[in-house]
Amino acid sequence: xxxxxxxxxxxxxxxxxxxxxxxxxxxxxxxxxxxxxxxxxxxxxxxxxxxxxxxxxxxxxxxxxxxxxxxxxxxxxxxxxxxxxxxxxxxxxxxxxxxxxxxxxxxxxxxxxxxxxxxxxxxxxxxxxxxxxxxxxxxxxxxxxxxxxxxxxxxxxxxxxxxxxxxxxxxxxxxxxxxxxxxxxxxxxxxxxxxxxxxxxxxxxxxxxxxxxxxxxxxxxxxxxxxxxxxxxxxxxxxxxxxxxxxxxxxxxxxxx
Length: 257
Fold this sequence. Notes:
It is built from 12 helices and 5 strands. It is of the alpha/beta class. The chain folds into 2 domains: 6-153, NADH:ubiquinone oxidoreductase-like, 20kDa subunit (Rossmann fold, 3-Layer(aba) Sandwich); 165-254, no CATH class. α3 links the parallel β3 (53-59) and β4 (78-84). α11 runs antiparallel to α12. The longest helix has 13 residues, at 65-77. The model has no long low-confidence stretch (mean pLDDT 91).
């Protein structure tokens, strides 16, 4: 009897939204249910199968010493490790702590901050262990997740588009909010995957899916400045769900202390 691939789902610092996207794949998961074993997924089941695991899906960022240690244990048990969502791929919204002194936050929020064992930064999984594939989004696109799982089962490369949100706007016939000057929009530098939801409602892209391949953030910032954005506006527009990664991190830092 052929052994089924074992899939594990792990949570670190996150809101669980990407795991819920996986649970939302009800019909799609039923189609592959006989081909895989969900070996570890506390969000969905108490059942646990021991590793090693063929595929580990990891949600969340590393924010504590314990997380960093546990992540290495997950990596050792996983043939393939796939990060899902902005927290796992970019540090998440909690990476805003990277630009300030986290001790100041703990002193304000907690009555006894000395009990809080946390790191000064929130970092993506790839900052600590080797990652085989990154699936961006806040939350992830469930259809892209199914594509990644199907590609892994069939030993092929996932067909995830590398282009920007602008391509999705063009495909659905949405008038460009940036060209009209109505809204600040990160669409030209943001990875596709959401279906251009915000521009379709006359709202600029927030950059939920992180930087696309080779994003020209300097040029976009120049365009936003022409529409009246000052340095603080430019800093804040890049410091959202993917503030701690690559081009967004660099461009936000270029416009502020």
